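Weekly sync notes, structure subgroup
Attendees: PM, AL, DS (notes)

Item 1: joint prediction request from the bench team. They want all two components modeled as one assembly rather than separately. Inputs as received:
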Amino acid sequence: MREKTKFISLFILSMLVVIGLTISATMSVLNENYYNTVLIIFGLILFIALAISVLSRSYRDMKEEIPVQDERSKKIRLFAAGYAYFFSFHLWLVLFIFHKKLQTDDMLMMGLLGMVLAFGISYMIMRNRKV
Amino acid sequence: MKTKIREYRARYRLTQDQLAKKVGVRRETIIYLEKGEYNPSLKLAVKIARELDVVVEELFIFEDSDFD
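Output from the run, pasted for the record:
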C-alpha cells in the first residue's frame, strides 16, 4: 500500500510541477521575457526526464512489492542532502555577490535550479559510492 | 570488508531478490553488500545471518585495514 501511495503521490506532484512550469513559461512568453522562457523550458525538460526515470522506477517497485525505502537508501539520501546543502549554500553566496548584476527573478531561478541539480547530482554520485 | 553472502545464498538457492524480500531491504542493498561496498547496520547483519543460518562473524570478514 505504501508503494502505491508513493507512486500516486509522485505522479500527482510531477503533474503539478509540469503544469506550473508550463504556465510560467507561457507567462514569460506573453511578457516577452524570452531569456526566462528559455531557462524555464530547460528546467521543464530536465524535470520531465527526471520524473520519467523516478516514476518508472516507482511503478516497477510498486508492481514487484519492493520496499519504498531501506536503511541504505535512507543513508544515501541523508549523505546526498548534506553535500547538496554544502553546494547550495555556496551557490547562494555567489548569487548574492552578483545580485546587483542579476534580476531578482533570474537569481531565484538559478538558485532554485542549482539546489535541485545539486541534490540530484549528489544523489546519483552517492548511490554508486561505498557508504 | 568482504562478505560470504553470495556463497551462503547459493547454498540455499536464493536469488538476491528473494533474500532482499526476506530481510526487508531493496535488491540493490544486497548487491552492494555482496560487493563489500555497503556497511550494514547490526540489525540487518543479524537478520541476514539468521536467514542464511550462519553467525554474523562467518558472513562478514573484516581485515585490519578496515579498522583504520
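Discussion: Helices of chain A lie at 2-30, 34-64, 71-97, 104-127.
Action: AL to compare against the crosslinking data before next sync.
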